[in-house]
Amino acid sequence: MESVLSRYRNLIILVGVLFLQVLGLAMQVKRGNDTQDTRLIRIWAVGAMSPLERSLVWARNGTGILWHNYFYLRGVRAENRQLKEQIEQMRLEQVRLSEDAAQAHRLQNLLAFKEQFVSKTVAAQVIGSSGSDMSRVVYIDKGENAGIRRDMAVITAQGIVGKVLMVYPTVSQVLLINDQSSGVGAILEKSRLQGVLRGAPNGEVMLERVMGDEQVAAGDVVLTSGGDQIFPKGLPVGAVSKVGNGKDLFLTIKIKPASNLSKLEEVLVLLEKQERQAIAEDKRVRAADILAQRLPSVPDKPPATSVAGAIPGSSAQSAGVGTGVIPGSRPKTTSPITSANAAAAKNPSQVPSSGSAQQPISRVPGSPAAARPKISVVGTTAPDVPAEGVAQEKPATPAPIQSTSQPATDNNDPH
Amino acid sequence: MPITYTSGEQVEVYRFSIPVTILVPLLALFVQAFVPLRFPWFAVYFDLPLLVTIFFAMARRSPIAGLLTGAFIGLAQDMLGHNPIGIYGISKTVVGYGASSLGVKLDVENAGARFLITIGFYLVHSAVYFTVARALVNMSQSWSWAHGVWAGLANAVLGTFLYFALDRFKQRT
Question: Which residues of B touch A166 (CB under 8 A)?
Fold first, then answer.
């Protein structure tokens, strides 16, 4: 007996070690694969790794900040100018969107619709991963001490990232949406079809449970449906990249996530989301008012001392018909934007084209406004203004707006 | 002669200092967890903890030491993920036992042998992981020979260089 034991000692120990691990595995599986059961063991590994990862991320960021903020400033001025133009454009777009939102709020209010909104977030830095393609999780440098709890949603500015799976005092583990065990309630923006977002073994994101007879096209935008009780409704998820016929009468829909899940650096954890009754806001800002603030006003006309300076037919000017202003004179008109232009900003399709007799804007030649190179109106850019003569502004063409506001019909949403 | 848990009757049995025994696997785990943040393909093709397991197991040439090394490294790797603890542990235990048993019988000092052994053990590791994940944990896994071979080759190339770097820490018993 003793000789048998000593002869097969290695094999017996191997079987024993394997048996112990299988036993431990079986216990975890029986308890429902809840990682909270193994929290104490996992915290050792995380505790050993996270200080190293944190310090390395800190050093890398420090070097990056030093380089980018103090040495490598090439093209910053051009980028700054570009961003300023973009801000101007977005301000105008915001006005249009607020109109839509106000309308949606009014409708929601009528239906006693409750909306969810994100009220508190915390920014966190991604400091590590599991290091395995079988477990798509990342670690962030904020934990219980920062108010993070289990099952909180994690997002970036581009879209959703995942949910908090494990929370330690200073570190949290985030399960990415492309993990196999992940599940997110999703809805197609156009068709309002609902499905479940899941990760495939190869790391791709799939939208499941969409019936085969539904019409889904590549490029369709996918949003969160709110049905999972983790992500608020309406957050961007990604876009459909491929559609195919799957098994069991369901479509195989591949999604390209809006967030770059393979190169995450900073994320936001949604600490609080609140539900409130939709309230219609009556504070409206017209696009015309925004434009009026942006464009320089023509100076006031002095008291009628010089009748000769007055322009014949000034009534046409006040009616919105643009006329040239005699250089050197001080026209009476003070508002650079006519009612026709205001209407153009609100509903461009109803405004006659620039080729018509109406000239919505009058400007003094040589004034700063005349020298302004571009006038942006609601997603479009007017042609360059000539240095001399009267500027002609094209009516704005409404840009297609991807509104993420929740339509009133969603009140029937079972979730 | 210092007595270590790797000592045996075989010739050319090596041992490692305690700092190397602890720090090298930890460093491998750290690199494996950190590098994919910048290079996501690293986690798909490379398995540094596996390479370290194979190296220590072959150098010590003791099946018990090999399987224990594999078990510890594998369990630590499991702890960093969210799957049940033990899947990597079982896979690397088998690899550690196999590599040390092979090290007793074969010359594993030359680059060619190391290259082939690494490919072979990568496939063994993947097969055991796949079996355990599907059969015991009911995870949805898909087996791909193409991925297995390419990842095996990638690990073998990296392993060959890594083993020569780690050879410097070997101490004769």
Answer: 82
